[in-house]
Design goal:
The complex is a heterodimer.
Chain A lengths: L2 H32 L9
Chain B lengths: L3 H18 L5 H15 L10 H10 L3 H13 L3 H5 L4 H6 L2 H13 L11 H8 L6 H11 L4 H13 L1 H12 L2 H4 L12 H18 L4 H15 L4 H25 L3 H4 L2 H30 L19 H13 L6 H25 L2
Classes of the chains: A mainly alpha, B mainly alpha.
Chain lengths: ~45, ~375
Amino acid sequence: MDTLVAEGLRISLTSYLLIFGVLAVFYALIKLLWKMPPPREGS
Amino acid sequence: MADWRVWVMFVVGLTLIWLAVRKKYEPNLLLPMGFGCLLANIPQSSAVGGGFLDILFKAGIANELFPILIFVGVGAMIDFGPLLQDPEMLFFGAAAQLGIFLTMMLALVVGRLPGVEGITGLREAAAIGIIGAADGPTSIYVAARFAPGLIGPITVAAYSYMALVPIIQPPVVRLLTTRDERMIRMRNPEHEVSRAVRIIFPIAVTLIAGVLAPMSVALVGSLMFGNLLRESGVTERLSATAQNELTSLVTMVLGITIGSTMQGERFLNLTTLLILSMGLIAFILDTAAGVLFAKLMNLFRKQKINPMIGACGISAFPMSARVIQRMAQQEDGSNFIIMHAVGANVAGQIGSIIAGGLILALVR
């Protein structure tokens, strides 16, 4: 495997895992937002 | 007598216009693109070579402004409610980006074949791979930076396959699922989403993306800005303008300008043909990855997910969600999975722009 393909593979794997990581943080964010108290009547 | 390539490009331009008018495939974009293609290929056309189409290219595509403005409009159109009700769908938006990276690797290999020009390294391969984001503005944004010479075929591939999602996805989904799996019913999410959550979400996502993947901020930020205009409830006029006038105006100039990059001597070659083929492969791989990821999740879950929903993670919003709902109803007329499908679909929108930002950050 030459350098360019190896570099491409490294970037692909890193990016794919990072997408999961970033979206997992958004998942945690939404779960956190669920815990927000509901708005008061009339607010 | 004009070069043969001029005549071929006239046919290509007229075909794009025909697809828009007759088949209604992405007409707002394909019609201006087709006409731009005609304008650019008329011998000695004053529209290019320093003409108004070149000016538009420099003003809005070379500096990536037009795709960003489109994202403001897209953000204003998106309702994140289904995703906020069922955040697990986010993971399909991640899984279904696999096609981007597999296609990028494929492009690296294909670029070495004899007769292939213009795919010389990682930047061009990444610009081709990003067709798999199934998101036109992201494709244009990355291609403008990494491979401006390939922006024509990349854009044509991205938008054409988005329009062809109803034809591309069903056979892949059927191949990878059983009838029983396609009939799985999904429990409707019960969680209510308050206005405050809808307002906080776009702001928080922008800030988090800024910390985790700063190169994605232009894309994520413009999408979330549009969404904040929609959800704030106090900027109805701005939201309506972003959804209608802004999106229409920018789509029009974007389309005609992209069309002008399809000049015969640059467009008609083996590389274009390969880019169109690899774009199709990217969409197929994305769909397969989403479905297979859902099946993987089902191995560990008591409450099974209909694996077709994984296919909606490819972005292509809202076409993909509609296609999957239609497929579910073909198997069982009373099965409604549309809310989950839309959730996965908007997750795909977020996943694709994060993918674009990461590629811009990591590829040198």
